[in-house]
Amino acid sequence: MSGIRFYSGKDIPLELHKVRIVQKLDLVPVERRREAMLEAGCNTFLLKNKDIFLDMLTDSGVNAMSDRQLASMMVADDSYAGSSTFTRLTDKLYEIFGTEYFLPAHQGRAAENIIAMTFVRPGSIIPMNYHFTTTKAHITRLGGSVAELVVDEGTKIVSDYPFKGNFDLEKLERLLDEKSDRIPFIRIEAGTNLIGGQPLSLENIEMTADIAHSHGILTVLDASLLQDNLYFIKEREDCAKDLSLREITKRISDKMDIIYFSGRKLGFARGGGIAMHDKALYMRMRELVPMFEGFLTYGGMSVREMEAMTVGLDETMDMSVISQGPLFIKYMTDELARKGVPVVTPPGGLGCHLDASCFLPHVRQEEYPAGALAAALYVAGGVRGMERGTISEQREEDGSEHLAAVELLRLAMPRRVFTLSQVEYAIDRIVWLYEHRDLVGGLRFVEEPESLRFFFGRLEPVTPWLDDIVKAFRRDFGDSL
Ligand SMILES: *Cc1c(COP(=O)(O)O)cnc(C)c1O
Q1: What structural domains and CATH numbers belong to the chain?
Q2: What is the pLDDT of residue 82?
C-alpha cells in the first residue's frame, strides 16, 4: 500500500477518507503575522491559534478522529471503578499485543514516570536507540542516565538508510557486557521522534530484544509512534512483505516485557498506558497508578477518550489508515528536496524536517537558525512549526550555550488533518522563503527561563529583518494574504 497510482503518472498521495466535520481556518495578512510573531516573542509555542493558518507544531493530541471513534464516545461507560469501557480497551490491547495486563495513565510521560520510578535508581543506565525529552527527564530526575545507541546513520541529515532508528548492536553488546548490573531495562523507541520520526527494522527490534534477554535485562517498547514504524517495516523490509500488520505487531510485542505509549499519538485520541504480559511486573507498578494517575480502570483518562482509543488502536492495524501520515510527509519532503530545499532524508513519520543550518548558513548557531526559520516561515505563510535545535537545549552549568548537534525546523503532519492543497501551500511558502533566505537574520533571548526555555522563552530579531520579509512578500504577492 505505497499509495494509489495515477494514470497521469503523478506521484501524489490520495486522501483515503472524506471530511465530514470541518474547522474554519483564517489566514491573517502578512503584516498581522509579523506583529503576532513579535507579540509571541519569536517563539511559535506562544502564538495564538487565531493567528495560525496551518498548525504543524506537533502530532500530539491533534490527530483527526474517525466517525467510528466519535460514535464510540457516546457509548462510553462512565464509572469510577469497573468501567466496561476499560474492559473493552484492555481486550483490544490483548487482541493486538497479546498483553494480559494494562495500567492506564493520563498520557505517555505519565507512563514513563511510573516505569522510571519502579526501575531507575541512582547510577542506573538506560540504553536506548535515542532519547525523548520527557523520557530522559524522568530517568535523570531519579539519578539515572541515558545511553544512546542509535546507528551512526541515525543522526546524518541526508541519507538513504531505510531504518535510521536502528540500534547499533555492537555498541549494545559491549555496553551490556560491561555494565549489565546497572541496567534495569533497555528502551526501544519506535518511530524515533527526535531524529525525525525514523523507524527501526523488525529484524533490529528482534535482535536488540534477544541481546537484552540474553543478559537477563528487561525490554521496554515506547510504542507512541508505533503506527508509523509499522508502516515503514511493511513498506521497506523484505522479511515483512508477507506479514500482516497484526503479525508484525505480534512479533514485536512477543519480544517485549513492557509496552507503553502516548494515546495522543498511538490510537488517535488522548491518554496513555503500560501493557505487559507478566503479572509480577504488573504488580510491581500497580500501586503507582492510583497514587499519581487515578483509579486502575481509568488512570486519569476520560472514559470517552479510552473508548476512542480502543477504536483508534483497531484502525491502527489498517494500512490505508496508517499510510496517510507517512505518504503526505514523503510528498512534502520529496517536493522540497526536488526544489533544492535542505530536508532530512529519507522521510520519516511524524513530520517533514527542514535543515536550518543549511537553509540559513549565514545565521550563526548562537543566533538560533532553527528558531529564526520557525519565525520566518510563520511570517511568510502562517505555518507554525517547532524549533528543534539549540533553543531546545539547556545551557551548560557555567551558563555557556550548549549548541545542538543539528538545527531542525519540524513541520509535523497531524494525521488525517490537512489536505494535499494545504500541504502544497506550505511547500510553496517554504520555497519562497528559501529563495529569500538572505533576508532572514538571527534571534536573541530577551527573557530566558532556566529550564524548558523553548516552551516559555521570549526572543527578538537581532535586526529588524521581519520587516524585510513583509516588504519582499508584498512585492511578490501583491495584495494576496
Ligand atoms: C509524545 C511522546 C511521548 C510522551 O507522550 P505524552 O503523551 O506527550 O506525554 C513519549 N515518547 C514518545 C516517542 C513520544 O513521541
Answers
A1: 30-59+321-477 (3.90.1150.10), 68-317 (3.40.640.10)
A2: 87
Nearest CA to ligand 1 atom 14: 224
Distance 300 CA to ligand 1 centre (A): 16
* Residues assigned a catalytic role: 80, 132-133, 222, 265, 388, 454
Contact 174/149 with Cβ under 8 angstroms? no
Q: Is the CB of 155 under 6 A from ligand 1?
A: no
What is the distance in A from the centroid of ligand 1 to the CA of 264? 8
The pLDDT of residue 79? 86
pLDDT tens-digit map of 50-84: 999 999 999 999 999 999 999 999 999 988 888 99
CB atoms within 10 A of CB 302: 17
Q: How confident is the model at residue 1 (pLDDT cuts 50, 70, 90)?
A: low
CA 223 – ligand 1 centroid, Å: 9
pLDDT for residue 7 is more than 70 = yes
Mean pLDDT, to the nearest integer, of 338-367? 97
Choose one of 138, 195, 198, 224 to mutate for the ligand 1 pocket test, by most ligand atoms within 8 angstroms of C-beta.
224
Question: Could you report the per-residue pLDDT of 104-143, keeping only the tens digit for each?
Answer: 999 999 999 999 999 999 999 999 999 998 999 999 999 9
Task: State whether the beta carbon of 132 lies less than 6 angstroms from ligand 1.
Answer: yes
Write the CA distances from 106 to 45, 111, 282, 298, 371, integer angstroms: 22, 8, 17, 8, 30
* Contact predicate 311/89, CB 8 Å: no
Q: Compute CA distances 196 → 170, 353, 456, whole Å.
A: 23, 7, 23
- Which pLDDT tens digit goes with each residue over 231-251? 999 999 999 999 999 999 999
CA atoms within a 13 Å half-sphere pointing along the CA-CB vector of 18: 1
Cell matching residue 120: 531507575
- 362 burial level (CB within 10 Å; 0-12, 13-18, 19+): exposed
Helices (H) and strands (E) in the chain, counts: 19, 14
